[in-house]
Design a protein that fits this description.
The chain is mainly α and about 325 residues long. It has helices at about 5-35, 35-50, 50-60, 65-90, 105-125, 135-155, 160-165, 175-210, 215-225, 225-240, 240-265, 270-275, 280-300, 310-330, and strands at about 130, 135, 305, 310. Helix content is about 75%, strand content about 0%.
Length: about 325
Amino acid sequence: MVNPWLQFFVCAAIIIFAGSRLTKNAAVIADNTGIGTAWAGVALLPLATSLPELVTTLSAVLIDAPDLALGNILGSCLFNLALLAVIDVISGRGPLTSRITRGHIITASLSITTICLASIALLGIFTISVGWVGFEALLIALVYIYGSKMLYSYERKNPSLSRGSEEIPAAGKNISTGQALIRFALAGGLIVVAGVLITDASDRIALETGLGHTFTGSIFLAISTSLPEMVTTLTAVRLGYIDMAVANVFGANFMNLFLVFVADLFYRPGPLLYAASGGHLASAVMVILISTVVIFGLVYRSEKGLGRIGFDTLLVLAGYFTAAYLLFRAGGN
């Protein structure tokens, strides 16, 4: 059997390579089709980068491990939000929320709506299901479908807000939409394969270290499967697509919450959210709080910060580490 540490780093290298290609081709598609780089970040990038979460979540429900599945989803959301602080540091030129469009408030609000629905189910006050699928999971699917349509309409009505000053690199201007789509699909395929393998390596490493399932699913496994989001987000920042990078964060979270519905379809013992531990409420509440802080920053647009990072994104980072600590204290089972 391959050493899990070697497998982890080889797969990470593959994801870094494929992730950079994913972002560049998403930008070409956005430019050629006129859909806007922000909407490309909301739709195109999360569609591919969330595939590792999908595969690992479905694997967890198929082996009757609802806590591992939900921990992976919520932990990925937390990690994605922490990336906003990284974007703020490396992009420079003042606090992040003062430099990006307010359109991200829509995606952030939709993410909060879906995670609130999941939280209601986790409270276990009442249980309503349609067949074996929970009622809240069905509502999450409806919010995702309607929200995606709303986001696309917003981008079409406000092209100047979504595109800003972001321009496609000269090297990408000679690539056709068809070529970009093929390259996008190939890069996404590499990420899927590497994502599955890196998850397997992460699981074996976690077993060797003796960490509990709660912490492993919400932190270690979540970070592993969120590596594509991290790579594509940072690549977008390096290329100058700040709005695409931020949209990828909130778009990935919106997509991750939709995976709750998908996982529920495959979890035959009953509604997934009703079977999961109420301990996941800590992660859900932190995602809501952190997303709310970002929304406040987008509305207030403060120019103040600490060094190269805004005070709001500092709170985002503090929120992530607080959640990680709480999950660690709850782990070991």
